[in-house]
Amino acid sequence: MSTNGNNGDVFGSIKTGYQVEQAVMETLRDWMPTAIMELEYQEGREVGLIQPPRYYARPRFEGFPMDYHPMIVVVSPGLADRPAAEGDGRYRGWFVMGLGCTAISRDDALASYLSKFYVAAARWVMLNQQTLRDEVSGINRASGIEWMDETYDDSVAQDEDQSIRASYGIFQVLVEDLVTRQTGVKQKYTPGSKWPTANVIGINVDITEDN
After folding, report:
1. What is the model's pLDDT at position 62?
2. Contact 73, 61 (CB under 8 A)
3. Residues whose CB falls within 8 Å of the CB of residue 166, separated by 6 or more in sequence, listed in order
4. Is there a contact between 91 and 85 (Cβ–Cβ < 8 Å)?
5. Could you give the count of Cα atoms lying within 13 Å of 65 in the half-sphere of its Cβ?
């Protein structure tokens, strides 16, 4: 019997947009310190002075204490286009993925600069760490990540002592095996069930010669 989907699971693959967001978030968390140090080096700065984001969240800036910044917000509004069906019943799709990078400072210009610095570092991570390995989310691999847009916002929040500025990166993330159809499931198996091993069937053929 065919074993469509995930390692013979009778239900095939089922993935959520939340899992894709989580995989992106964990990849950024792992790689942002390295990207930040490299960007400091390329700008001729002393390496290690700019701190990595302190917090990774979904999907808003407002309501977080000031000491949560700098931070990165990761959110997907959904698919960029119609999902594509493979010949074996599996679907793949491009998820739109938005990254918001904040910075905080008493100096407006510095906060603006730092938010752009962070989104540039995040851009490098997204384009160069496309495997998105994350055991928690279940997304073990993205098949491709494309950079779509980048914008800057100098009016996020401000009080008498601090200014928060943000920069945004928009990407598309291609994920395979979003769902599997026509798996052959006709009964309510226990979740995680595997297809049973087929029994060996012997066929005896008698050949009779005509005289």
Report:
1. 55
2. yes
3. 61, 100, 101, 102, 103, 115, 152, 153, 156
4. yes
5. 4
